Structures are given as C-alpha cells and as structure tokens.
Amino acid sequence: MESDVQPKDDRHWSLESLNKAYQQGYMAGLTGQPKTRHGHRAEVLAAAWEAGWDDGHEQLLRQQKSA
C-alpha cells in the first residue's frame, strides 16, 4: 500500500522560506561556492536554492567575462 503522506520537511515551507532559499543559493552561486552545498532536505526548498545558485553562477560568469 502506498502512502499519500509527504515527508514532514516538504509540508512546511512558505513563500518567505522559498525566497530565502533562493537568495542563499544566488549568493552561493555568485561567490563561486559549489552547487552541492544547499543543505535543504525538502525538495521544494532545495529546488529554490538550486534555481538561485544557477542564476547567481550565471551572473558570476557574466562578470568574469566582462572583466
């Protein structure tokens, strides 16, 4: 029998926590930190952090290219 219950960590997130995870990921990408350092167990927050990292890393590459 399959369970319809999500892991506890995926049930407790808010727009504020998504924004915070995104901003933390953005700063990590912008400062050249590895993408594997997010530390979020909830998939939604990990995805927000990774999206921020992608955007921050892209900005870092643009800055390096124009320097």
Report, as a whole number of angstroms, the end-to-end distance. Answer: 58 Å
Radius of gyration: 14 Å
Q: Judging from the principal axes of the Cα atoms, what is the shape?
A: elongated
Order of helices and strands: HHH
Mean pLDDT: 86
Count of the domains: 1
- State the total count of DSSP E strands: 0
Sheet with the most strands? none
Q: State the low-pLDDT regions, or none.
A: 1-7
Structural class: mainly alpha
Output the number of helix runs.
Answer: 3
Estimate the helix proportion, in percent. Answer: 55-70%
- Strand portion, in percent? under 5%
Describe this structure in words.
The chain has 67 residues and is an all-alpha fold. The protein has one domain (12-66). The protein has helices at 8-11, 15-30, 43-66. Helix 2 (15-30) runs parallel beside helix 3. The longest helix is centred in the last third of the chain and has 24 residues, at 43-66. The radius of gyration is 14 Å and the shape is elongated. The model is unreliable at 1-7 (pLDDT under 50). Pfam families: RMF. This is Ribosome modulation factor.
